[in-house]
Amino acid sequence: MEHTPNLNLKKPGLTDNILISDINENMDILDDAVSELQKGNTSIPDLETVDKTLTGAINEVKNEMTGHVIDPMPHMFVDNGITYRWGFRTVKGEPQIIYEEVAK
Predict the structure, then answer these.
(1) Strand order of the sheet with strand 82-91?
(2) Which letter does DSSP use for residue 43 in this model?
(3) How far apart are CA 38 and CA 58, in angstroms?
(4) ∠ CA 9-34-15 to the nearest 5 degrees?
(5) pLDDT tens for residues 48-72?
(6) Nearest Cα to 48, choosing from 39, 40, 56?
(7) Among 2, 20, 37, 99, which is disulfide-ready with 86 (CB 3.0 to 4.6 Å)?
(8) Alpha helices in 40-101 (DSSP H)
(9) pTM for this entry
(10) What percentage of residues in the chain have a pLDDT greater than 70?
(11) Which of 27, 17, 16, 15 is nearest to 7 (CA)?
């Protein structure tokens, strides 16, 4: 019998006998894993946020997006040594790219 790499769930082969107890053990493992994710306390190393819990990562992204929505020109670029900030807005339903030079 093989096992999954992450949760070590039992994977019966085509010729293995399937036991209800194996299925129940797999269900318990899955239930525990989902429960930890629902609580938001499980660390997820691949998250590209400072907080590695699901709840923390969602809140971190939400806070970044809130600031992004409030500031109409949250992006910056440099052209010939001059720094500009830029963003988007709509005027009468038409999208526009807006930018301005950043004062030194």
Answers:
(1) 75-79, 82-91, 94-101
(2) B
(3) 13
(4) 20
(5) 888 888 778 888 888 888 877 778 8
(6) 56
(7) 99
(8) 54-70
(9) 0.45
(10) 98
(11) 27
